[in-house]
Write a structure and sequence with these properties.
mainly alpha; globular; 423 residues
Length: 423
C-alpha cells in the first residue's frame, strides 16, 4: 500500500538516480567532448559579462538563449560538470511527472503511471538527458507546455492560458523548431472548448499573445545587434542544409554537417567571403539558396521531405553509433514505435480530445520535411509514444483477461461438467 501511494515519487527518484548515475559512470572527459561545447562557451561568456554570443567575431544569435541560460548556473560554479548533471537529471525526472499528468487526463491513472515508468527507464533518456545538449530541457519544456495547455483547456481561469503561452514561448527560446506547434495548440484549445464564446476565443488568443511577448525581448535584442528579429541566425543555413544537391550524400547515415561540408564546396567563395561576418546577411543568403533549390527541384524536395522524416522516425540510430548503441536503441525504440502506432489506431475515437498530441507529431513532421532531423531531434516525441504503447498493452491485457473470464464463467454448467468427477 505504501509503495502504491508513493509510486510516482519513487519513479521520480528512480529517473533521477539512473540519469545522474549514467553520467558519472561515463565520466567527465567524454561529457565535455561530444561536439556541443559551444553551448557552455556561450554560458561562460554571459557569466563573464560579455553577453550571449559565440566566436570571434561574435555571433549574437547563433542559438536560442534558453539552454545557455540554464548552463549559466553551472558556469558560475567550479564544479560545472556536477551541476549540469544534477540539473538535467532533475529535468529528466520532472518529465516523468508531466507525462503522468498527460496520461492521467487523456487516458487513465494506470496509463499515466506506466508511461512515467517507461520514461524513467528509457535507455536513450537515461544516457542522453544528463549530457551537454538542450534535448532534456526541450523535452521537459514541451511536456510542461502540454500540461498547461490541458489545464487551460479544462479550466475557466484565463490566467492558465497565459501561463501556457509563456511556457510555449520559453520552449521556443530553447529550440525554435516548435514554432508550428504554437498555432496548432491554440486551434486545439479552441475546438475542444465549449465555454462562453468570449472564453472560447479568449483562451487561444491569450496563448498566442503571451507566447509572442515571451520571445519578444530576444527578438528585439537580435534586431538591435544583427539587424533582424530572429530567434536564431542559423535558420537559413539549416534550411539550405536540408535543401541542396548534396543533402543526402552523407545524411542520415552520417552527420548532416558532413553533407553540408560537401555542398559548401559548390558555393561561390566570393559571395561567402562578403557575408562571412554578418549574421543577418548570412541568414538571408542561405535562405535564398535553399528557396532557389526548392523552386527548381520540386520533385527532389518532395522526395526529400519523405526521406528526412523516415530518418527522423527511423529505428536505426542516426548518425550511426557503435553496434552496442544501435542494438540498445533498436530494441527499445522499435517496440515503442509499433505499440504506439497501434495505440493511436485503437484510440482513434478520441482523436479530437487527444489532437494536441497528434499536433506535436504534425509539427515535427513539417519541420523535419522542410529542414532535416536526426534521431536526437525526434526523441522528445517518444514520451507520447509511451502513452499509446502503454494504452495498447493495457487494452490487450484487459481484453484477454475478459475473454478468459467469459470462457470460464459464461456457462457455469459446462465448467461444472468439465470438473465433475466420474461416477
Amino acid at each position: 500500500m505504501y509503495i502504491k501511494k508513493y509510486r510516482l515519487h519513487l519513479i521520480f527518484v528512480l529517473a533521477f538516480m539512473l540519469r545522474a548515475g549514467s553520467a558519472f559512470i561515463v565520466g567527465e572527459d567524454l561529457f565535455w567532448n561530444r561536439g556541443y561545447e559551444s553551448y557552455f562557451q556561450i554560458a561562460k561568456n554571459l557569466t563573464q559579462g560579455y553577453g550571449l554570443y559565440l566566436g570571434d567575431p561574435a555571433y549574437y544569435a547563433f542559438i536560442p538563449p534558453g539552454y545557455p541560460l540554464l548552463l549559466s548556473f553551472a558556469a558560475l560554479s567550479s564544479m560545472s560538470f556536477i551541476v549540469i548533471v544534477v540539473l538535467q537529471s532533475l529535468l529528466g525526472a520532472a518529465t516523468t511527472l508531466c507525462i503522468f499528468y498527460i496520461g492521467k487526463k487523456f487516458f487513465s491513472y494506470k496509463i499515466g503511471i506506466s508511461a512515467a515508468l517507461l520514461t524513467a527507464l528509457y535507455p536513450y533518456f537515461v544516457l542522453h538527458d544528463p549530457s551537454l545538449h538542450e534535448a532534456s530541457l526541450f523535452t521537459f519544456m514541451t511536456a510542461l507546455s502540454t500540461v498547461f495547455l490541458i489545464k487551460a483547456n479544462n479550466s475557466k481561469k484565463l490566467y492558465l492560458s497565459a501561463v501556457a503561452g509563456i511556457c510555449l514561448g520559453l520552449t521556443l527560446l530553447v529550440r525554435s523548431t516548435l514554432f508550428p506547434f504554437v498555432p496548432l495548440a491554440a486551434i486545439w484549445v479552441f475546438i475542444n472548448n465549449t465555454a462562453h464564446i468570449k472564453i472560447k476565443f479568449g483562451k487561444p488568443l491569450l496563448i498566442i499573445i503571451f507566447c509572442f511577448f515571451t520571445i519578444l525581448p530576444w527578438l528585439i535584442r537580435t534586431h538591435l545587434l544583427i539587424g533582424a528579429p530572429l530567434i536564431t541566425s542559423q535558420f537559413g543555413k539549416a534550411l539550405w542544409g536540408g535543401n541542396n544537391p548534396h543533402t543526402f550524400s552523407h545524411y542520415p547515415r552520417e552527420s548532416m554537417d558532413t553533407s553540408r561540408s560537401k555542398a559548401f564546396i559548390d558555393l561561390d567563395i566570393v559571395e561567402i567571403y562578403l557575408i562571412e561576418h554578418n549574421e543577418r546577411l548570412q541568414n538571408q543568403w542561405y535562405t535564398q539558396m535553399a528557396i532557389k533549390y526548392i523552386k527548381t527541384h520540386p520533385w527532389q524536395t518532395f522526395v526529400g521531405f519523405i526521406k528526412k522524416n523516415m530518418a527522423g522516425f527511423s529505428w536505426i540510430f542516426n548518425p550511426q553509433k557503435t553496434p552496442v548503441v544501435q542494438i540498445v536503441y533498436f530494441f527499445s525504440y522499435t517496440p515503442l514505435l509499433l505499440l504506439g502506432l497501434i495505440g493511436m489506431y485503437l484510440n482513434r475515437e478520441k482523436i479530437k480530445t487527444q489532437l494536441l498530441i497528434y499536433f506535436h507529431f504534425a509539427s515535427f513532421i513539417i519541420i523535419t520535411g522542410v529542414f532535416w532531423a536526426h534521431t536526437l531531434h525526434r526523441t522528445y516525441l517518444d514520451i507520447y509514444l509511451m502513452l499509446y504503447a502503454a494504452y495498447t498493452v493495457e487494452h490487450y491485457l484487459t481484453k484477454n483477461k475478459n475473454l478468459l473470464f467469459n470462457k470460464l464463467f459464461s456457462n457455469p454448467q459446462v465448467v461444472y461438467a468439465k470438473h465433475k468427477e466420474p461416477s
